[in-house]
Specification:
heterodimer, A: 113 residues, mainly beta, six-stranded mixed sheet, three-stranded antiparallel sheet, B: 122 residues, seven-stranded mixed sheet, four-stranded antiparallel sheet, 51% strand, globular
């Protein structure tokens, strides 16, 4: 069980807006650690979508945005498109773990109806 | 252009060993921490191991500690993952990734390798 909790699935129709939540704790998001988001399509490498809570790498459309508040964060996708269908992961740094301090959420499967 | 080219994925028996490699180009390899991330069938992403630029600070997930060894050869711009005492649950696609950030709490994975399939079965 991940220290960052995400809903297992979300869905939306083309053109709609969806959000994916990422809930952490006082040892990660609440401690001020940045939140980053990745898109993972089958048979491809994960792709950095949002870094530093709300920054988009070059080439990522502004339909994707991130926010953070307290011990939670969210990824929003507007103008949903068929090729947005993928798995989405949040990632952060946790200062309370014995192993690797960089952790991922459990992932959220986005289905475009 | 940053490129991470992986090799070494294969089939191994439980208890066996494998070594993955990740050849980097397009950036000053020795300046950046690197990591191995895996995704097992039906599961999410897991950060397996990370190593800093000089190679003297290393982290391992509890699930692989004592069995996996991360290393790097900065003269060859190559990252390695030696996997010993393999278990069925280690079967996954393994990705190498470059870490980017100013401090540990800001670190994220900005470039990824293409993935290496590791199968563990008798």
């Amino acid at each position: 069980q991940s220290v960052l909790a995400q809903p297992p699935s979300v869905s939306g129709a083309p053109g709609q807006r969806i959000t994916i939540s990422c809930t952490g704790s006082t040892s990660n998001i609440g401690a001020g650690s940045d939140i980053h988001w990745y898109q993972h399509l089958p048979q491809t490498a994960p792709k950095l979508l949002i870094y530093g809570n709300n920054n988009r790498p070059s080439g990522v459309p502004d339909r994707f945005s991130g926010s953070k508040s307290g011990t939670s964060a969210s990824l929003a996708i507007t103008g949903l498109q068929a090729d947005d269908e993928a798995d989405y992961y949040c990632q952060s740094y946790d200062n309370g773990l014995s192993g690797s301090p960089w952790v991922f959420g459990g992932g959220t499967k986005l289905t475009v109806l | 252009e940053v490129q991470l080219l992986q090799s070494g994925g294969d089939l191994a028996q439980p208890g066996g060993s494998l070594r993955l490699s990740c050849a980097a180009s397009g950036f000053t390899f020795s300046d950046f921490a690197m990591t191995w991330v895996r995704r097992a069938p039906g599961k999410g992403l897991e950060c397996v191991s990370s190593i800093n630029g000089p190679g003297d600070t290393i982290f391992y997930a509890d699930s692989v500690k004592g069995r996996f060894t991360i290393s790097r050869d900065n003269s060859k711009n190559t990252l390695y993952l030696r996997m010993d005492s393999l278990r069925v649950e280690d079967a996954a696609i393994y990705y190498c990734a470059k870490l980017q950030g100013a401090t540990y709490p800001t670190y994220h994975f900005d470039y990824w390798g293409q993935g290496s399939l590791v199968t563990v079965s008798s």
